[in-house]
Amino acid sequence: MDALSKVLSALADPTRRDMVSRLARGDATVNELAAPYDMTLQAVSKHVRVLQVAGVVTRSRDAQRRPVHLQAHVFDLVTTCIERYRREAEERYGRLDDVLAAMPDPVESHPQKTTRAGATT
Amino acid sequence: MTTTTRQTEISLDPDVPLVRIIREFDASPEQVFRAHTDPELFSQWNGPRGMQKRIDHFDCRTGGSYRYELAREDMSASFYGCFHEVRPSEAIVQTFTFEGMPDGVAPERLVFTDLGGGRTRLTATSLVDSFADRDAFVASGMETGVREGYERLDEVLAR
What we know:
The structure holds two protein chains of two kinds. Chain A has five helices and two strands, in the order H-H-H-H-E-E-H. By secondary structure, chain A is mainly alpha-helical. Chain A has a two-stranded antiparallel sheet. Chain A is elongated and about 70 Å long. Chain A starts with a helix and ends in a 20-residue tail after the last helix. Chain A has helices spanning 3-10, 14-23, 30-34, 41-53, 72-101, and strands at 57-59, 68-70. Chain B is α+β, with helices and mostly antiparallel strands. Chain B has helices at residues 29-37, 39-45, 131-140, 143-158; strands spanning 2-3, 9-12, 18-25, 52-58, 65-72, 75-87, 91-98, 106-116, 119-127. Chain B has a nine-stranded antiparallel β-sheet, with helices on one face. In chain B, a hairpin with a 5-residue loop joins strand 2 (9-12) and strand 3 (18-25). At the A-B interface, helix 1 and helix 5 of A face strand 2, strand 3, helix 1, helix 2 and strand 6 of B.
């Protein structure tokens, strides 16, 4: 799995996303992170480890409390990637704008009639 | 994670591996629908820039199917799927598969909403098998940019 996927799948878990949003306000120890959750310290540590492996958070080696620190620039890159994807879609739809502008108006609706009774979207 | 700075809105669902794209057009639902069902019109705008699109077949009606190839000098890839439900000017429900990965099927849904005054909102959702697949899918459209993005990300993650 590539780096971006690692980050995004680490964030796919609601508990980890919650942890990350709390870490965005400042560093916290595993104990502090665990406080609001009804789960063992071990389970919380496991979540932190997943975030750590994905590069989303780091833990300082020397400090005794070993606070968990959010790597904010990882998010900038994730946002950049999504923004690129969005721009690509926008480019495609910009071309669709041109196609639509060149279309005679009014357009006859498509001849096919395939509506099925009771079908829902 | 949602980006809404410009016209096209992308959102990644946090709970299921789904990508949603929303875009509004200055055209009627009939027109936007036709630009999706007429193979000639469709090939004029769909697909990445700088790649040749060759439509093998494109039969956009309930029970129909499609297959097309995207190619540029150094690479080509084919995609195919079925049109499960096509309701004129309302909705297209289809599947999407990369040729060579036949077990990977992404259901896609296009909904055309009439906003009145000759405007239409298109909501396109794509549901893939896993978050990893979705992320690869989001990353796949980014061409050159993605490579440098990955390189930068790799650098950051290697620290």
